[in-house]
Predict the structure of Indolepyruvate ferredoxin oxidoreductase beta subunit.
Amino acid sequence: MNTNNRQRINIAVTAMGGQGGGVLADWIVGMAESTGWIAQTTSVPGVAQRTGATIYYLELFQPSGGQADAPTPILSLSPAGGDVDLVIAAELMEAGRAIQRGFVTPDRTTLIASSHRAYAVSEKESMGYALADPEVIHQAAGEMSQRYICFDMEAQAKASGSVISAVLFGALCGSGALPFAREVFEQAIRNGGVGVEASLRAFAAGHDQARHGDGCTDSPEPVPTVQKWTYQGADQGIHQLLARVETDFPDGLVTPMTEGIRRLLDHTGLRYAELYVERMQQILALEQGLDADKTLSHRVAARLAVWMAYEDTIRVAEIKTRARRFDGLYQEVGIQHQQVSYFREYLHPRIEEVAETLPASLGRWVLGNRWASALMNRLFAGPKVVSTQSLRGFLSLYLVARMRRWRHRTLRYTLEQERIDGWLALLTATVRVDHELSCEVAKLPELIKGYGRTHARGLKNFGLLCRAAEHLQGQPDAAAVLVKLHQAALKSESGTELAAALRAAGLENLAKELGSSGGSAGVVQVMEPQPAV
């Protein structure tokens, strides 16, 4: 809305911690007061970094000219639905929340928002894909606001070496929604006296982008593609393995398989990558023998590689002690290498994860012996805070990472290979009966993810669905039923939806088994999939 002729302007700013919402509010107040306006700002803090943004509410009031004895206006402390001229959102979903609260109205409100995402806890903790659709927000914003300006302001801020508040301030200026000249905006930044040059660069970037037009003016994101990995080293074994893939597999499998080989070389080594190729050759030969399309092979190629590159304690320690990880942290936080810095890793290994790092026989003994488990739990399990900038902290993780060469002897390795072999055996048995069902079985490892209880829960559901696939063999709608079961398993941690789906599919015994453990949560003992006969 054009506010040039308005005596009172109401502004709502929503920002999360660290985005400079308070600084932005101070800039607006300082700018207004420098031109003779009366300005007031209040704020209502959110619950936490990502479970609620702070709402800054500003009212700007222009006194009537020439009336020295005019009464001082009483300004509101909080925004009211339908009475906001400008809404500034430092993140896309915060724009959606402002619309839900009624702050944005089509007859009055200019909405300025950044299109980037800071994912909510509900999105990140979901067992399946739960990211909100940004197009829904863009459509609602276009319909509910009088004017909508949106682009990736976080990217502009990073490119300028500043924070998003400066880009938002520039977009506010570029929108022309306030009756102040650009020079007044820039002077407000200079008056702040902190990071002035970087803030002015970010301000200019936001100002120019906002003048490109209404709506979301981001360039379309390129469709992500997996590039074929090429090895540049001197190890002839790796060159021979890649050449074998080029020769023995269809063109459509070469790119995902070379990426899988790259992962497994980094995870364990050449012999492990060779095992991956051998397993893929068995699946491909099976499909070729049945004269079926290569859907199964394509699905197995990626999921098998991801599963084989499982993240155990050795892998976690290795990742946390890599030089490029520290370089990334320095870059993200803006720390120079000559500056003194301290990083703390917050870890919470469970006794199962500790025992699975031991040789297979010893690990089984520890888990089966109450006294040994109690001792190991007391010494190694539980919450840990490790400072990787200290010699002791770094060495504790570095020594665990060095166990990579002995990974194939650990209990975790043994268990994972047993599970993978069981899954491949089920695929082999299923594809001979129902190729479409086998292609859905190939997707079941998506249930296995995370650490600790999340990982145990995923394994439990994976085992149940593998057994469900065995029972469904021969039914005309077996693949469709398994898809529904898969979707139900991803809906919640409680297992309620999965139990209901199992009952609807006539698998009452599996539903009871799920219910007898109080849902899939908290399960430690994992059922292994049994190959169909």
Summary: The chain has 24 helices and nine strands. Residues 411-431 form the longest helix (21 residues). The longest strand covers residues 8-15.
